[in-house]
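Extended Data, record DUF8151 domain-containing protein
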Amino acid sequence: MVEVPAVAVELAELLVVTLGAGVASVLGVVLEQFGLSAVSGGDLVLGAWAVGMGLIALYVGLVGLGYEQAIPRLRRLASGE
């Protein structure tokens, strides 16, 4: 069995978490834009749903994956632990 260095595993995890944070954040922005255009077009229910889902996606991307996952992993790699 091939031994994978711990640094390589940490880098792969950091890459996946960072990509996930980016995708969730972009999805949140797109949903916010769609929700605001739906509200301005007169569809309040669809607009409110899209704005709510956009806020959730932004929270997951920025706080859940970015602030709570990616930054600590990056600090751990930078410190050499």
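Summary. The two ends are 25 Å apart (CA to CA).
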